[in-house]
Design brief:
EC number: 6.2.1.1
Number of strands: 31
InterPro entries: Ac_CoA_lig, ACAS_N, AMP-bd_C, AMP-bd_C_sf, AMP-binding_CS, AMP-dep_synth/lig_dom, ANL_N_sf
Enzyme class: ligase
CATH architecture of the largest domain: 3-Layer(aba) Sandwich
CATH superfamily of the largest domain: ANL, N-terminal domain
Radius of gyration: 24 Å
Shape: globular
Strand order of the largest sheet: 12-11-8-6-7-14-15-24
Bound molecules: ligand 6R9
Number of domains: 2
Number of helices: 20
Keywords: Acetylation, ATP-binding, Ligase, Nucleotide-binding
Strand content: 15-25%
Distance between the termini: 59 Å
Oligomer: single chain
Protein name: Acetate--CoA ligase
CATH class of the largest domain: Alpha Beta
Structural class: alpha/beta
């Protein structure tokens, strides 16, 4: 079908218009022609954003792993499906073919079954970027278990919260992980978490760093011997289109993380279709996304989207600066990467190193460069375009979210002319709207407002695990009949979108979404702390860094403040993880509050950004006098 691969701008507009005018026909054609179904759907789409309820391909039966693996075996059995590049550059890369992936996923699926896991059970996956991670997702999907991957950089408390929120019966982990020159004791973190997780019956442990760990009798099992003993055949569980495929947690503006639930058919169709078009993927390309599978980018564009297209997808275990800042470019040269997808924070860190680190390597294989996770600033965009892409590989600045499942606004490479810092045009089937502060849609171009989506797309998250009301409240209550993204955006004179950043209490640090509420909760756990407020301020590598304003119970505290700062960051590390540590901590006697007792973060944000020329009206504050005091002591 010609619609599957967009080749020029006019075709984009044609296909886009069709996808908007006849969304059901459009997606039905895509679904018909590019996937294998055990049974086709009775109904393409039913939806109601007031409930909210969205169903795609209802009545269809399928298994996503048959689409990602089995159907490729006849034509691509010996092709590399997953190309694993280890942390240590001296350790050989591992090429896992589709034939091998089929066997390994089936063996893993059989182990899960033997351990009593079945359809609908939740399995927590806390595994570093090693092949077992991708394989464990697929093994769950094979038998209809719902995977809940927790990024293996989260602390034991964060892990326990996520395990308990969706009642996981099993945890899959590894003895440890490598990160550059360091190794991390993952199993120790799991053991600590499980003290608070009575529902977990078994733990499967992959061996990666050969460290001495304790195995709890009756609960913990080494994975490899079980895999070796398992059969390489495992029938795929036949799933309904709307059966949950996975849960993935994202930060919200209250303390509790939101378990976004993605279902099977719509997610598969949209991630596969966006992968093919947004990266202009061709057979025999070698595609590399540098994200961790612990985030949605890894789920959709390391695992499901690429494999549904029979692609070769690279999994990199390490970090951009080990053994030196040339590692990414070394990998591009070594594996002749054609599509490279990374985050602005990585681009900024690498751009700081100067061009020699890039120019040492042959990057001529690159065709398409991608950016995701946060707004890309102009300087980073140009560096990426000129130094890495040599002005010939278009940058796709792709905007999307955990909640959207797949790419929503992006240039299509070689089709949409790019513009620095602009995510450009909505993807096929995506209907954005910008809203003003009164809840009215801003029509026409050259407008700026809050970004909403007016019509369901196949991979929209269906609910928040265990809390549908929170799902409605967070995404569908601000603007009537629209999905609200939490982002601000502008539309320029030709209709290109530029994402301006979060408009809620989520701060994106190094591409990671962090809610201010859980960080403040962690700080407030410190016995010396009475109250705190966290805001973001610009940082040249991380995009944003965190600034904490902290009121101590006894302001005249005689203890050394630097120690207290370390202790507060330690609290945060324990409760959330090191990614949420504060760059600056200012101790203060008060926080600016409204008469209803709400902290005025807008003012704190301006102070942290050293932009105090126009603080707006502070007269309505309960305590306007603290503002000057905070300004005088700003760090
Ligand atoms: C895929 C992913 C979602 C938030 C999103 C927005 C920001 C992502 C962006 C971008 C500007 C881009 N974001 N891509 N902002 N330009 N190209 O990152 O999901 O971790 O849920 O984050 O990230 O603020 O709302 P997630």
């Amino acid at each position: 079908m010609s619609n599957y691969h967009i080749k020029h701008l006019e075709e984009y507009y044609q296909v886009y218009r069709k996808s908007i005018r006849e969304p059901e026909n459009f997606w039905e054609e895509v679904a018909e022609e590019h996937f294998v179904w055990r049974k086709k759907w009775d109904d393409v789409l039913s939806w109601d954003f007031t409930k909210p309820e969205v169903k795609w391909f209802e009545g269809a039966k399928l298994n996503i792993t048959e689409n990602c693996i089995d159907r490729h075996l006849a034509t691509r059995g010996d092709k590399t499906a997953i190309l694993f590049e280890p942390n240590n550059p001296d350790e050989p890369a591992e090429h896992i073919t589709y034939n091998q992936l089929y066997k390994r996923v089936n063996q893993f699926a059989n182990v899960l079954k033997e351990q009593g896991i079945g359809k609908g059970d939740r399995v927590c996956i806390y595994v570093p970027m090693i092949p077992e991670l991708a394989i464990s997702l697929l093994a769950c999907a094979r038998i209809g278990a719902i995977h809940s991957v927790v990024f293996a950089g989260f602390s034991s408390t964060a892990l326990a919260t996520r395990i308990n929120d969706c009642d996981c019966k099993m945890v899959i982990t590894s003895d440890g992980s490598y990160r550059g020159s360091k190794s991390i004791d993952l199993k120790g973190i799991v053991d600590e978490a499980l003290e608070k997780c009575p529902g977990v019956k078994s733990v499967l442990v992959a061996k990666r760093i050969n460290s001495e760990i304790t195995m709890k009798e009756g609960r913990d099992l080494w994975l490899q011997p079980l895999l070796d003993a398992a059969s390489t055949a495992c029938k795929a569980e036949i799933m309904d289109a709307e059966d949950p495929l996975f849960i993935l947690y994202t930060s919200g503006s209250t303390g509790k993380p939101k378990g976004m639930v993605h279902t099977t058919a719509g997610y598969m169709v949209f991630t596969a279709y966006t992968f093919k078009n947004a990266f202009q993927y061709r057979e025999n390309d070698i595609y590399w996304c540098t994200a961790d599978i612990g985030w949605i980018t890894g789920h959709s564009y390391i695992v499901y989207g690429p494999l549904a297209n029979g692609a070769t997808t690279v999994m990199f275990e390490g970090v951009p600066h080990y053994p030196d800042f040339g590692r990414f470019w070394n990998i591009v040269e070594k594996h002749k990467i054609t599509q490279f997808y990374t985050a602005p924070t990585a681009i900024r860190a690498l751009a700081k190193q100067g061009v020699e680190m890039v120019e040492k390597y042959d990057l001529s294989s690159l065709k398409v460069l991608g950016s995701v996770g946060e707004p890309i600033n102009e300087e980073a965009w140009h560096w990426y375009n000129d130094v890495v892409g040599k002005n010939k590989s278009p940058i796709i600045d792709s905007w999307w979210q955990t909640e959207t499942g797949g790419i929503m606004i992006t240039p299509i490479p070689f089709v949409t002319p790019t513009k620095p810092t602009y995510a450009t045009l909505p993807f096929i089937g995506v209907q954005p709207a910008l809203m003003d502060e009164h809840g009215k849609e801003l029509k026409g171009n050259q407008v700026e407002g809050r970004l909403c989506i007016k019509f369901p797309w196949p991979s929209i998250a269906r609910t928040i695990w265990g809390n549908h009301e929170r799902y409605r409240e967070t995404y569908f209550s601000t603007y009537e009949n629209k999905y609200f993204t939490g982002d601000g955006a502008l539309r320029d004179e030709v209709g290109y979108y530029r994402i301006t950043g979060r408009v809620d209490d989520v701060i994106i640090v190094s591409g990671h979404n962090l809610g201010t509420a859980p960080i403040e909760d962690a700080i407030n756990e410190h016995p010396a702390v009475a109250e705190s407020a966290v805001v973001g301020f610009p940082h040249d590598v991380k995009g944003n860094a965190l600034y904490g304003f902290v009121i101590l119970k006894d302001f005249g505290e005689t203890r050394v403040h630097d120690n207290l700062r370390n202790e507060i960051n330690q609290m945060i590390t324990e409760h959330i993880g090191p990614i949420a540590k504060l760059d600056k901590i200012q101790f203060t006697s008060g926080l600016p509050k409204t008469r209803s007792g709400k902290i005025m973060r807008r003012i704190l944000r301006k102070i942290a950004c050293k932009d105090t020329s126009n603080l707006g009206d502070t007269s309505t504050l309960l305590n306007p006098e603290v503002v000057q005091d905070i300004i005088d002591n700003v760090l």
